[in-house]
Amino acid sequence: MSAEKILPNTFTFNSAISACEKCGEWQQALSLLQDMVSQRLCDVISYNSSISACEKAARWQEALCLFQDIPAMRLLPDVISYNAVVSSCEKGGRWQEALQLLSCMPPGMPNVRSFNAAISACVRAKASAAFRLFEEMSENSLTPDVISYSAAVKACETEWLWKEALGFLHQMRSESIAPNLITLNSAIAACDKAGQWEVALSLLLGLGAWKLQADLISFNSAISACGTSAAWRMAVVLLQRTFSQSMVPNAVTLNAVMTACQRGREGSAALRVSSSMLKAGISPNQITFSVLSEAYAAEGSWTKAISLLKSMRQMHFPANTICYCHTVEALCKAWRPVGARRFMNTLSELALSALSLMWL
């Protein structure tokens, strides 16, 4: 434009910033905004697009600074400005800032999106605040949507409130609001954490009634619920269903099934599951090794327990005190006092190393 002696105006600048926002170029968006400020061309739309660019890039501090600059430019933030900055605080895990911004909105300005962003910001850190905000929506004559309910059910998951999660699902049904897979996965996970495997299974099997198809997250949560209640046979059945539905189980699936078998005192079944899934190319993690070592300890397989520690080193996994404890247990069961003492010494060194790191 400059080469043709045509100077950019507010519209062209805003269009460019909006394009940067959509492409994830938040730094370029801020550079363009700075040019607008120097030329006195910026308006609230310019700031809104720039804040949204920062939000999508998870740059909550920059978004907050931009929002605070709006009054200095003798501009009034609108609902889009507030929603964008609250959403940026949500993505940055800044629930207190999100609540403060929501409370600063003029009466009648907050909409469903404002509350949804604030509720989502509180989900992991302050579930009680999320529930309170959900109730405030009706007080502000706003009707919660599926995003509102999904965030509320997610808050139930973080606090293991399975009955409350079911209550929100019942409320959705009465309001003729269809839950999505995110909503129901959170409800299944809430049941998992509360050890309610039968309820979790019922929710999983009931997904079809909502015309939804379970994904691996759904199955992993249901299998994990079986693990907390030692319902190992059902865990294995669910594992088989993942294969029948052309899913590819991951380490979370493997660990959950193994844990269910182990808690059901079926260590041999846990080992069979691990063997078949590792052959399928599923990469283990620290939890996998911990559950395997527990199974070896239960049956006194000290040679396998030691081999497992060697495999961990070869795969560059850090020393795991749980695995060492299980190895000592396996050696003791096999009446191998010398080996047990040697691994006890190693375990002591690991414990001292961990303590020294805590004091750094």
UniProtKB/TrEMBL annotation:
Gene Ontology cellular component list: mitochondrion
Gene Ontology molecular functions: mRNA binding
PPR repeat copies, ranges: 9-43, 78-108, 145-179, 250-284, 285-319
Organism domain of life: Eukaryota
GO biological process, one term: RNA processing
Entry protein name: Pentatricopeptide repeat-containing protein
